[in-house]
Amino acid sequence: MTKPSLRAALNSGKFVAAPGLHDMITAVIANKVGFDFAYASGYWTTASAHGIPDAGIASYTQMLDRVATLCRTSNASIIADADTGYGGLLNVHHTVRGYEEAGVVAVQIEDQEFPKKCGHTPFKRVVPTIDMVEKIKVACEARRSTETLIIARTDARQVEGYEGALKRAEAFAAAGADVVFVEALESEDEMRDACRRIKAPMMANMADGGKTPIRSAKELEDMGYAMAIYPAMTGLAAAQAAFKALSAFKELGTSVTPAQELYSFADFNELIGFPEVWEFERRWARQSNEG
């Protein structure tokens, strides 16, 4: 199966809106709905796989396994959060190669110190700009395919202020980043100004509950963004649904209540591929009987 090219989409001027897929149930549901692109968030894949915070605790190996599984499961092309590149320049090189082999179409790296923090939580620290510039250059050199994009993120807005973050973003664009991502901007004015000043395709992070105002894909395109991720949407929706279901069960002692709607078990079996398994069983059971 040939998946959509992110580079081609951006070159054509098509705005890319990518929902976050935090687990494989969400991935197969997204296959049914239909998306060209989706996002593998470090925060949400870590939370769903391990139940721990996005604070540099999950290892490169754990994240690579999760990303590779998502790439195999999803029909969409996956844009993947690779945190800081999991270390120094050699680690960045190894990370880009690993993520590319896993099947992602874009690798996102950021300028935080290791261990990193979620971009919308406190106590972030950033590395010197030159260190991140070198990571971007190594990342660009490490990729084997021109279809693999490098997304450079700065978390300096809350550390060095808005102008400090923009100065870094300009340096990242000059270093060769295919897409620039200024994390946790705090107003629509900042978002518009950043798109106007940065001479590279810009990505917006629509993190529900975070510091940046949530805007629609059309509004972001009008501001000047080339693409946007919505990393928290499915994770928060799933958490709310699970909380509601469990609360009703604790109170009423049954899964069948007017307070919640359950996805069809028959439809879910189809989503995850049981019909193919049953057809296999029928075929080989028949051949065994004939033998």
UniProtKB/TrEMBL annotation:
SUPFAM superfamilies, per database record: Phosphoenolpyruvate/pyruvate domain
Keyword terms, alphabetized: Lyase
Domain of life per record: Bacteria
CDD domains from the UniProt entry: ICL_PEPM (cd00377)
Molecular function GO terms recorded: oxo-acid-lyase activity
Protein name listed in UniProt: Isocitrate lyase/PEP mutase family protein
UniProt organism field: Falsigemmobacter intermedius
